[in-house]
Amino acid sequence: MQTVDDAAAQIEFDRRIADEQKIEPTDWMPDAYRKNLIRQMSQHAHSEVIGMQPEGNWITRAPSLRRKAVLLSKVQDEAGHGLYLYSATESLGITRSELIEALQTGVAKYASIFNYPTLTWADVGAIGWLVDGAAIVNQISLQRTSYGPYSRAMIRICKEESFHQRQGYEIMYELAHGSPEQKAMAQDAMNRNWWPALMMFGPHDSDSAHSGKSMQWKIKRQSNDYLRQKFIDQTVPQIEVLGLEMPDPEIKWNEELGQYDSGEINWEEFYQVINGSGPCNYQRLKHHKKAHQDGEWVREAVRAYSEKQQAKKEQKSA
Amino acid sequence: MSEQQAANINQEHLAVYEVFVRSNRGLDHKHVGSLHAESPEHALMYARDCYLRRSEGVSVWVVKSTDITASQEEDIANFVDPMDDKPYRHATHYVLPDNVNNM
Amino acid sequence: MNKNSENLYRFLVGLADDSVVLSHRLSEWCSNGPYLEEDIALSNIALDYIGRARMFYQYAVEIEGKGRTEDDIAYHRNEREFTNTLIHELPINDFAFTMVRQYFVDVFYCEYLQQLTQSSDSQVAAIAAKALKESRYHLKRSEPWIKQLSEGTEESKHRVQLALDELENFVGEMFLMEDWEKELVEQGIAVDREALQADWDKQVQEFLAESEMKFPDSQLQIRGGRNGIHTEHLGHMLSEMQYLQRVHPGLKW
Known about the structure:
The complex is a heterotrimer of chains A (318), B (103) and C (253). Chain A has 318 residues and is an all-alpha fold. Helix content of chain A is 69%, strand content 2%. A two-stranded antiparallel sheet of chain A has the order 1-2. Chain B is of the alpha+beta class. Chain B is flat, with a radius of gyration of 22 Å. Chain B starts with a helix and ends in a 23-residue tail after the last helix. In chain B, 22% of the residues are buried. Chain C starts with a helix and ends in a 6-residue tail after the last helix. Chain C has one domain (3-247): Up-down Bundle (Ferritin), CATH 1.20.1260. Chain C contains ten helices and no strands. At the A-B interface, helix 4, helix 5, helix 7 and helix 13 of A face helix 1 and strand 2 of B.
């Protein structure tokens, strides 16, 4: 039940949102706003962490020492971004272990793109270029999100992310201008990653369950379809520079709209992967759980040690 | 207690630390985020690995989150507003002739 | 190459191989760490070692003067041609093993690289100076880890002991000198490894004793790495690491 105080706080909250002011952790906020933020931010954090796996799959097979250093630092950055986002989410009064439990029990989601396999080295290029590229479009928009810690985390992440996309494109460029096998590898990886990258923007605006409220609260600043189109428009010329075939035969410049037309996403596949039946859903969560379980004795040792130290200190001062 | 719950409780024992970074000599330390660590010394090392991967700073502070005393939001009007009506503390309050107005 | 350059080349490739195989092992932790912060920290150490390997390889090919690249050396030699000491190539096993190994090499490198900064070869000295800073930081991390794990729970103590037992045989090789390396010492280029052992023993012994852990007998030594006699593990590592370069030779990536 809303009390008189809450009603006043609600007015203050609404005024701040309308004035483009940020909401900070100690501010009063509607429960639904808090829940919505936790859902979106933790999903984002989980995506960074699970996203380490598909690319991590190639760290030990990177074809040169430079590529290996670049890839490892890139995947490490994803872990760092996961950390920034967990940290921002924790400011909403939820602990990291609760968030991890939600991930491992399937209550929380992560970006479906990471449920696709990285079959060849070219997937590393395609992911950096297309997946990080799509993520950047989304994240640039989110720098203006209404929740202060989320916005600040996004600003930091965006600064770091542009290297990710550039290294991916560099890999694709090298392959596309390499041997026939390398070029075929690049084409194949782009074709496979193109549609999942478009799916990253979520369902059409008309079908998006959470979009309305998120937009109203300025958690989300631009709609799924708007951002998806933006991504397509910026990526098509990059495909041309690579000299690869378009991954979608319906891609065509539309003079009237001043944007590219493109084919329809296979939404059946989209929902299938979201609901757990993508090629790697099971594998990704299993990997995460195993690392977590294998680390349990380490965390336990850390706790036991610090308790012993604490006891020693108390004994001394007693 | 399930294994999962036990694992969670273990992890809670890693305290949360807030991280502050001085990006350049001459600037203030600025809050950049938080992390989990078992001791202040470890927190400092993790801060280096997690927040300074690109030489973003020349100095780092870590502070246990629970050691921070913060102003309370419900109270904030009483806390902040009275400072608002003292315009004579601001330079713009004083009207000077144009030719000395860059004072 | 004359004899001096040949010795220097062997020396540089040996140090590079040490770093490249250890960096490979450490990179295997990525996305497998006990928690996010430690995962990130381990990747940083791996990156330090990749950087170190590249610097040594790059200088080696410069000395060789045949126009080869760092990757030609790292990706186109087989097991018998790799010359790293064995401790660097052992699988990561569990976190305790990874950390005990790290602690052992950190203590070694802090002393070894310190002396190598005095090398009469200015490029070797410069690489050593950079690497020394890294190793000092690594030791600052690995030392408290060994302490925490040794004094944490029964399980963590047991795991540390298992790691100490397994690694015991591989410590001594770090202090072995080949004839060509002795010549380089005489020229003021390399460091006398043998002379470092007593201090290493003392430092590690005292440190482990604080936590009542059994000190390894570093006189035991399985040797052979510098002459291409490895554990079975190296072949698997190389077949993974070199796969793309071997399947598609001569291409740019």
